[in-house]
Design brief:
With 214 residues, the protein is mainly beta. The protein contains 2 helices and 9 strands.
Length: 214
């Protein structure tokens, strides 16, 4: 485990910038869990575990994600219980990502580039400070979406395109559209409400691809 800084007797995580040096040579590594580790990590774009598909860096007090992380061809990225205030636009480059958990952070918005996560099935943004959901999420093959415990007031009508969606968790939001009595009835009634709303002006399109930068 890397060095830690201490503040008022409590360890504080150094900035996370990539997999730990010891993992760089493990070319066959597929799963890496650093939960609770508070690591001071360093990354090199030429020294990444090429087969790493599952990365867990939850509960590390992380404040930001380096764009370099988005070069990894991950299937699962677990970032819950940190202190993230934003996600980089470069996250849209993670085309192989199937599950993203950024619950219990300090996010106020989600980048439109997430519309390019063409493999994403499970998105958990529970317990953040999000006020609006980007329309680009409607482009994803989501099966599960959890945005409960945020500050969202409306579900975009274009979300009716999420026909693969099986689980929609939206409780503990100040939702006005659909109104609360519709949301309480669950996904089927929410979709009926969205289908009955006036047509969208135009379907969303993914934002231009951004190259991840260190």
């Amino acid at each position: 485990m890397g060095p830690q800084r201490h503040h008022a007797g409590r360890p504080v995580a150094e900035p996370f910038v990539g997999p730990p040096p010891g993992a760089a040579g493990l070319q066959c590594l597929e799963l890496l869990s650093l939960s609770h580790k508070l690591p001071a990590l360093r990354a090199s774009p030429h020294r990444q575990p090429q087969r790493l598909t599952h990365l867990n860096v939850s509960r590390n007090q992380l404040r930001s994600l380096p764009p370099a992380l988005c070069r990894l061809q991950l299937h699962v990225l677990l970032l819950s219980h940190n202190r993230l205030q934003r996600l980089p636009e470069a996250i849209g480059a993670m085309a192989a990502l199937r599950q993203l958990d950024v619950s219990c952070n300090e996010l106020r918005s989600l980048p439109p580039s997430m519309g390019r996560l063409s493999s994403l099935r499970d998105l958990n943004v529970r317990r953040n400070r999000i006020t609006a959901l980007p329309a680009e999420l409607s482009l994803l093959p989501l099966v599960r979406l959890d945005f409960s415990c945020n500050h969202v007031t409306a579900i975009p009508r274009c979300f009716r395109r999420l026909r693969l969606l099986q689980a929609l968790l939206c409780d503990h939001n100040p939702l006005q559209a659909p109104p609360p009595h519709v949301c309480l009835k669950g996904r089927v009634h929410i979709f009926k409400y969205l289908d009955a709303e006036p047509p969208d002006a135009a379907p969303p399109t993914p934002s231009p691809r951004a190259s991840p930068q260190s």
